């Protein structure tokens, strides 16, 4: 895989925060002397090192810079100084699916189907490149101004030929094989698709609890209760995805993603039309200008300085 392209920080004007994470924040920025707005992911090097996430971040940059798909956020390149690493990403102005889902409660089943179909194509594409995503959740799906989704945040993504053993992901979305530390592969992504389909249709996670340990116990028990108004075809697909037995989980059988794409819940989806973004969208976010951030939550801008690293301590310098 090729390395990401080096950019110059001085080429960008930096504006308000769009989101925050464990190593830093994402800010709106504009390339000087152009009308192009970007999302600048600002990562604290000292935090990345302290939390032993150097490999994850290098993975994220290398993987993202080698991807090209209509439903995956594009990465232009990166820049750095002694304190921070900056990833230059496409700005997706419609906000997170998480925010939208919270505002409406739950989605009509045809609306959920439209989004789930795009996630299916994202995973099918990543898996052909032997990339496992491992961190699907509504916070990592952005809604573009055309109403289609873009997958973002590749911090847990990994190129895996066989199996890997790192525990990572969001509690509610973890597959049983990750919890049991048996080694996991591409099938974990199809499990998370099952969780997402459930959450979009029901408005809550299937294994929800205040206490992460209780969530893990529910996942390992594997009993999924469906609300009475849950679409029966969506329910059928969720049951095929939330299967602990990998030899029975859809997406992991010999037909791969086709078992999911041919499921009756997706019978209204023309996959070629979807990929070329020719299907009508159920919701189009209101975006008034190229720099409109009103679909994102507001964040206080005060941010303590991260300590500068000496060149000898900086694992990103030769990168």
UniProtKB/TrEMBL annotation:
GO biological process: anatomical structure morphogenesis
Residue ranges constituting the Protein kinase domain according to the UniProt record: 12-266
GO molecular function, one term: ATP binding
Domain AGC-kinase C-terminal: 267-319
Annotated InterPro entries: AGC-kinase_C, Kinase-like_dom_sf, Prot_kinase_dom, Protein_kinase_ATP_BS, Ser/Thr_kinase_AS
Binding site for ATP: 41
One term under GO cellular component: cAMP-dependent protein kinase complex
Region feature Disordered, mapped onto this chain: 294-319
Position of the signal peptide: none
Pfam families: Pkinase
Keywords: ATP-binding, Kinase, Nucleotide-binding, Serine/threonine-protein kinase, Transferase
PROSITE patterns: AGC_KINASE_CTER (PS51285), PROTEIN_KINASE_ATP (PS00107), PROTEIN_KINASE_DOM (PS50011), PROTEIN_KINASE_ST (PS00108)
Recorded family membership: Belongs to the protein kinase superfamily.
Name of the protein in question: cAMP-dependent kinase catalytic subunit
